[in-house]
Backbone:
């Protein structure tokens, strides 16, 4: 118990480091993953911006990143992180590789939730003479919103898991703490505490995501 | 108003040769009329309709709406042209995440209407379709008929000259169908809107279409005035469709007990049925017995069909038939069919 009180300040810092890493990666996922997912969808066969080339190139690029196991991606991206931030240590550095992993992950989720939209609704929008941009902004995004939010929840939870891996190579956060105290020092109390903390975090994210997805669903 | 010339639409299939959806169809829809296209599913009627606003791009042919050749337009010009071609669908296709107001407003936004004008115009449109009190509800809160009214309001938003209806009443119950048809009829009259309706329900054609065409296997097998088609169908498929509205099934027991000649009499337009028949019965030594009869009103013009059993000496009966032939629109002598 005394060890727990001892590391409480560190636990506090680790918790916020995890939040920071996941938060940045989520933000990047929205900024880049969302457009990529929409591009994948609207350039698909039979859709209003059908384009085999763009669909092909974006698709391959996304699969490329997704096929690399995260722990390898972490190491692989170290030079890039160093170039970008001048360091490879700390939560900010870890958020680079987390972001790179989050973009294609979320893009695929965006694509599949856009696919859930009734094609007829899009057709009706084409029939009233709406432009592609209007259809994306006023039809696809609002109609896919519950799916997009649910997808963001899934992405966030995956990222929390990934962030533990990032911790092992000096990223910080709860995962790092668990490895350092729990694995290297055999301190089970700290180990359990971090696990419980992670469980609570994941539950909270899931609950909040579900709540949000439900409140925007008008079906 | 709508001119289709030699329209062919091929669909590429994964194997062998492409499938013909529409096979060399030419069709003219006049300004201000309600035109029906009837056919079983898979006949190509929906594809043909979708060629009218290039939701489906025909493989060959010319599509002219209001004199504009739609296939020659750039995508931006096509979008503008589509704003004057409204369309409604069997499945309504409303945006579930938007209110009734936003659904209708979307069409106006697409046409670049200013924000201040959108609100008054949406209210005006919902007034026309009778849904003003539902303006801030979501589609999930509406009944099928109400959803179709919203989609009609959306289709009418930019004052189109044409309204395309793709099985617009097929998902609705009979009484809702009636009310939606009445609305379409009113819109047609009030705004002079040209309406093209795709349906497999002959009732719909009978109720509101001025002219109609019957499609099978991608081709039009018959077209003409709805009244002419109903009173005198020539293609077997057309007859089959007409039968869904004007069919006469005589009980087989009745057929077995009749002894004379069975006649089917057609009365087209304003010929008083009873008058002719009672005159015939008075002037000829025959006994007549009406077994079945129906008067349908097609575009408010009566179409009467009666089946009667005529008894008497053969000579007299034949004379009576001649007498009727001269006075009613069409006389058919039915065979006594063996009941099966």
Residues:
């Amino acid at each position: 118990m005394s060890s727990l009180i001892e590391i409480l300040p560190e636990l506090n810092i680790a918790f916020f480091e995890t939040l920071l890493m996941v938060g940045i990666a989520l933000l990047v996922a929205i900024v880049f993953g969302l457009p990529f997912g929409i591009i994948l969808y609207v350039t698909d066969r039979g859709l209003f911006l059908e384009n085999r080339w763009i669909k092909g190139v974006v698709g391959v690029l996304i699969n490329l990143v997704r096929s690399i196991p995260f722990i390898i991606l972490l190491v692989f991206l170290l030079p890039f992180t160093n170039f970008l931030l001048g360091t490879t240590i700390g939560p900010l550095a870890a958020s680079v590789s987390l972001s790179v992993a989050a973009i294609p992950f979320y893009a695929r989720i965006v694509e599949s939730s856009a696919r859930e939209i009734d094609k007829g609704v899009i057709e009706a929008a084409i029939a009233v003479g709406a432009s592609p941009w209007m259809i994306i902004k006023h039809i696809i995004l609002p109609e896919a919103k519950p799916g997009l939010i649910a997808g963001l929840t899934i992405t966030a939870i995956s990222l929390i898991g990934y962030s533990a891996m990032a911790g092992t190579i000096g990223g910080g956060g709860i995962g790092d703490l668990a490895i350092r105290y729990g694995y290297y020092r055999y301190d089970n109390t700290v180990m359990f505490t971090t696990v419980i903390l992670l469980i609570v975090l994941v539950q909270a994210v899931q609950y909040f995501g579900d709540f949000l997805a439900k409140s925007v669903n008008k079906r | 108003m709508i001119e289709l010339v030699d329209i062919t639409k091929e669909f590429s299939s994964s194997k062998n040769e492409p499938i013909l959806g529409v096979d060399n169809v030419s069709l003219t829809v006049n300004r201000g009329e309600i035109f029906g296209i009837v056919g079983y599913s898979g006949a190509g009627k929906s594809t043909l309709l979708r060629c009218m606003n290039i939701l489906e791009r025909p493989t060959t042919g010319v599509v002219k709406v209001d004199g504009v050749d739609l296939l020659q337009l750039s995508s931006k010009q096509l979008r503008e042209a589509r704003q004057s071609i409204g369309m409604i669908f069997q499945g309504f296709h409303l945006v579930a995440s938007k209110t009734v107001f936003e659904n209708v407003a979307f069409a106006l936004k697409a046409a670049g209407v200013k924000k201040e004008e959108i609100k008054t115009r949406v209210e005006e449109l919902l007034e026309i379709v009778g849904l003003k009190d539902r303006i801030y509800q979501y589609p999930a809160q509406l009944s099928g008929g109400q959803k179709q009214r919203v989609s009609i309001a959306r289709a009418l938003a930019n004052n189109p000259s044409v309204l395309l209806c793709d099985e617009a009443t097929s998902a609705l119950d009979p009484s809702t169908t009636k009310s939606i048809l009445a609305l379409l009829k009113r819109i047609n009259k009030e705004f002079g809107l040209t309406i093209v309706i795709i349906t497999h329900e002959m009732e719909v054609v009978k109720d509101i279409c001025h002219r109609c065409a019957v499609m099978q296997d991608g081709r039009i097998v018959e077209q003409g005035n709805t009244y002419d088609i109903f009173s005198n169908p020539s293609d077997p498929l057309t007859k089959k469709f007409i039968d869904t509205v004007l069919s006469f099934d005589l009980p087989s027991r009745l057929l077995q007990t009749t002894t004379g000649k069975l006649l089917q009499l057609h009365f087209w337009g304003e010929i008083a049925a009873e008058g002719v028949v009672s005159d015939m019965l008075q002037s000829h030594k025959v006994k007549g017995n009406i077994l079945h009869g129906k008067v349908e009103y097609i575009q408010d013009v009566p179409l009467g069909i009666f089946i009667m059993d005529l008894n008497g000496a053969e000579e007299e009966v034949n004379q009576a038939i001649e007498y009727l032939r001269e006075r009613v629109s069409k006389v058919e002598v039915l065979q006594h069919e063996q009941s099966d």
